[in-house]
Structure formats: C-alpha cells, structure tokens
User: Fold this.
Amino acid sequence: MIIRPTMEEDWRTLKAIRLAALRDAPTAFGVTHAAAATYTDDQWRTRAAGSDTAQYMLAFAGEQAVGIVAGVIEAPDEVKLIAMWVHPQHRGDGIAGRLIEAIKQSALARGHRRIVLDVAPENASAVNLYQRQGFVFLPEWEPLESHPHISVQKMAWEA
Assistant:
C-alpha cells in the first residue's frame, strides 16, 4: 500500500476516485456527484496538482487507487480534512487510518497543529474511525452544504 499526494498527471485517477466516492456515499460530502461531474479537465488538473485550495492524497493497492483524502488550509494553524473515502472492497484494511495519518504528517510538516472535520454523528463507522485517530467532538454544528437537511458536527485533532 502506497499513500502519496497527487500530482497533476494524476488528475484522471483523482477524478475517477472522487466521483466513485460521491456515488458510493452521496450524503457524506459537501459536494454532490452531479456538481463534481461538471468540473472541467483543467479543474481536475488543478486539484491534482495541489494548486487549488486542497491537497489531495491517494492510497494505492498496486496500480489501483483505493482511497482518497484531502486537507484544506482553514487558518494559519488549521487544516480541514475533506473527501475521506476508501473503496468498499478495501474497508477494514487499515487504509483509512493510514490516510488520516498522512494528512496529519503533511499538516505538521507545514506547521499546522490542528485538523478539523465535519461528520454526521449517525455515521458510526466514520465517528469510530476519527475517534480512534484522536479526534474529539466540538459543540459546533452546521448543515451539510450539499444536503442542508443533514446536520454535521465538527471534530478536531490537535498535535
């Protein structure tokens, strides 16, 4: 298993796995599949190159991308974890934990000491994963951008 940041030439892989994630878990992300499917090739290239607001990382099993996560700088010392997803056939293999650890190490290397994320508390498997990784709930709620009828709660990890 290899986990690494995306590069511009990974744009097709990034597009494929991000769209797969949005199809698999349509109410877990702040963007819908329909919206992401309209992004241009240049927009995907920008995302993959890390020249957008997010730095994406992919987990590979051989040549196949099987997991994704991204970090977005929210404040001088804070990164927001987004786009966390592992292909269903690879869940339970420890990939999700390794993706989160990769974002933690990337954030720390850039001087960020805090990582936040939003999760629906009813998503027990995600909540358990994040809690095992040291995240704690904060008393902050907001509607999920892509599905405003769903409320998500903020969780945070601090170095």
In short: The CA atoms of residues 26 and 32 lie 6 Å apart. The longest strand covers residues 64-75.
